[in-house]
Each structure stands twice: as structure tokens, then as C-alpha cells.
Amino acid sequence: MAEKTTEELEQLRDLIDGVDQQLLHLLRKRLDLVAQVGAVKHGAGLPIYAPEREAAMLAKRRAEASAIGIQPQLIEDVLRRLMRESYLNEKDVGFKQVREDLGKVVIIGGEGQLGKLFGQMLNLSGYQVVSLDKDDWQQADALLDGAGMVIVSVPIAVTCEVIRDKLASLPEHCILADLTSIKSAPLAAMMAAHKGPVVGLHPMFGPDVGSLAKQVVVVCHGRGQQHYQWLLEQITIWGARVVEAEAPQHDKAMQFVQAMRHFCTFVYGFNLCNEGVDMDSLLQFSSPIYRLELAMVGRLFAQNPELYADIIFAQKESFGVISHYLENFTKALTLIEQHDRAGFIAEFERVSQWFGELAPQFRNESRAMLQSVNDLKSH
Question: Which of 66, 101, 215, 346 is most buried by a 10 A CB count?
Fold first, then answer.
């Protein structure tokens, strides 16, 4: 009986292996077709990310999966993973160059990670890119000569100083832009130093992204939008979503999106370290959601501390936002100290109502992420 069972299992496993090989060939064929689509998009100057097409395709595949007894989420997970791979491959064929008569692009801080990323994307679009880093100022005149656009990508703490002291003599036709995560002060500095087109950009992603597809770039207009509108079109072709905002509105949001969030993550890791927590033991007992939280904490401490110090200390107003967080933390802690279970539930329900429809939406969005974390944990 045991021998028969073993033989039957081996036969079934061989059949599964055969199906897996067919899947591999189908995946290769799909990736090749996507590469052809990428080449057509490149020639036509179309964005690599088309949200309407993606949403319609996923909805259709989910319905087709359900009709043949396959969980719709399974096919969506597979297709989303394939699309991420496709976006990575699509940029290898390059992008259409929107502005062919620009002249060279000089990136101040071009040897930094974000400067390198934008330099790479511009190169892939056919632009001549020159890096001007901190040791190159003695040849700055030569490097800046003939520049059609100058992009400032230096630490926040020195951004305004570099703009004020080094970039006050650019040709009037030259576009001056920055990639800083705060916008009011750098934008004002650029407007004061340069009489030509000025635009503030904030890429809402780290330099380790493999593709700009689905990423967000915030744009704060300065002067002469008609002269740099092509740049926004170029960023859209790269797959990113352009979000326009006034500089004060942007900076206020960053007090929550960046300063408070990064500070809270810092304190989380700070506390784990000071408590001498056994991380191996903690990971052993971690659920997928807690492992994801730990991963986000660990991610912070794997990066440049000066970058996060700059973000947190960049705006004096961030101190007030973080202080309010501490006050609310203390209020919540009081509920625990007073064993006020009913009060905790009441506050929980109040906040849940404040989130409204976003709460179940975020719950659904997090399911796929949690499954990915669980898959990683099993390896």
C-alpha cells in the first residue's frame, strides 16, 4: 500500500513539474510581449504605467478566474508581481526624449543616491547629464556652461546655501530645480537667486526603487511653468504620478508624512535597543503584521542617519507636531494606567469613525503585503 501511494505521488508530482515548466514558458512569452509593448511606448512617448488599462485588465482577469473556480486574489497577486517585473524591464529600452534641444543637465550632488537615480533616468531619456559634486566647484563654471537645466540634489541643511552662494549667475533661460523634501525655503532661495524658470520637486520615494512606475513626485511651481512643463511630461513618461501642491501645503503635510513618522520609527528602534530586546526571539514569535512593522523599523536604521536627521530637523514646526503626538500618547497611556477599558474602546471607535471608509480600504490593501511577508518568513 505504501509503495503504491509513493508511486502515485511521484506520478502526480511529475505532472505538476510539467505544468510548472509550461508556466515558465508562458511567463517568458508574456515578458517578451511586454518588452515589445515597452518599445512601442518608447517610440510614442507614452508612460510606462497606464492605471486605467491596469485596473481594467485586473478586473477582467479576476472575473475570468472566478468563473473557472480560481480565487480572484490569486491571479491578481501573480499579475501584479509580473507587472512589477515588467516595469523594471521596460526602462531598459529607454524613454522618449521630450525636449531635444535642452542642452546638458547639470546635477548638483549628482554622485548622491537620488542624484544618480535622476541622472540615470535622464540618460535613459537621451539627455546629456553632468554631475557637479562637492569636490568639483573649482571647475563649476566649465561644468555649468551651456546648461539647459540645473538640478540641486544636496542635503537639506545646505540646499539653500548652495543655491544662494553658487547658483546666482545661471543663464536666464536655464531651468533651476531642486529635489529637496521640504519646499518653501529652497523654492524661495531659487526664486531669489535665479531670474529664469524655477520649479521645486520632491520625489516621494527612496533612491533604491527599481522603477518610477506608480511612484509620486510632488511639484511646487515657481516661475515660468511653460518652460519646464516638458519636464513634468518626462517624469510622467517614466511612470511616476505628478502631484501639484503649494509649497506651504506640501511642507505642512511633510511634518506628518515624514518628520513625525520617521521620528516615531526612530523611537521604536531606540526603545528596542535600550530595552536590550532579543531580536531573534522577537522574530520567532512575530506575526506577519508585526514582522512588517519590524522590517520598516530596521529599514530606517539601515540608511544614512544624516538624511533622517535632516528630514526631522528641517522644519521647526515639526517639533510641535511631534509634541502633540507625545501628548496624545500620554493621554492614551492614561487609559491603560487607569485600567479604563471602556474608555479605550470608546476612543478606538471614535478614531475608527474618523478614518471612515479608508479603514477597510487600508485593511484590504494590507492583505497582499502581509501575505508577501508571510511567504518571506517561511524561507
Answer: 215
Type of residue at 180 = T
- For residue range 271-329, list pLDDT tens digits in order: 999 999 999 999 888 888 888 889 899 999 999 899 899 999 999 999 999 999 999 99
pLDDT of residue 374: 61
Name the range with the highest mean pLDDT among 88-102, 207-221, 326-340: 326-340
User: Which three cell numbers mark 280?
Assistant: 531573534
Nearest partner of 123 among 107, 141, 146, judged by Cα: 107
Q: What own/partner pairs with CB < 8 Å and gap ≥ 24 does 31-40 have? A: 31/82, 31/85, 31/86, 31/89, 34/86, 34/89, 34/90, 35/89, 35/90, 35/93, 37/90, 38/86, 38/89, 38/90, 38/93, 39/93
β-strand 198-203 against 216-223: which pairing, if any? Answer: antiparallel
Q: Give the chain's radius of gyration (CA, Å).
A: 25
Comparing CA positions, the residue from 299, 205, 328, 192 lying closest to residue 257 is: 205
Q: Are 129 and 119 in contact (CB under 8 A)?
A: yes
Q: Identify whether the C-beta of residue 95 lies closer than 8 Å to the C-beta of residue 237.
A: yes
Residue 376 has pLDDT above 70, yes or no: no
- Please report where in the chains the cell 505538476 appears, as a residue: 16
**pLDDT tens digits for 177-232?**
999 999 999 999 999 999 999 999 999 998 888 889 999 999 999 999 999 999 99
**10 Å Cβ neighbour count for 86?**
20
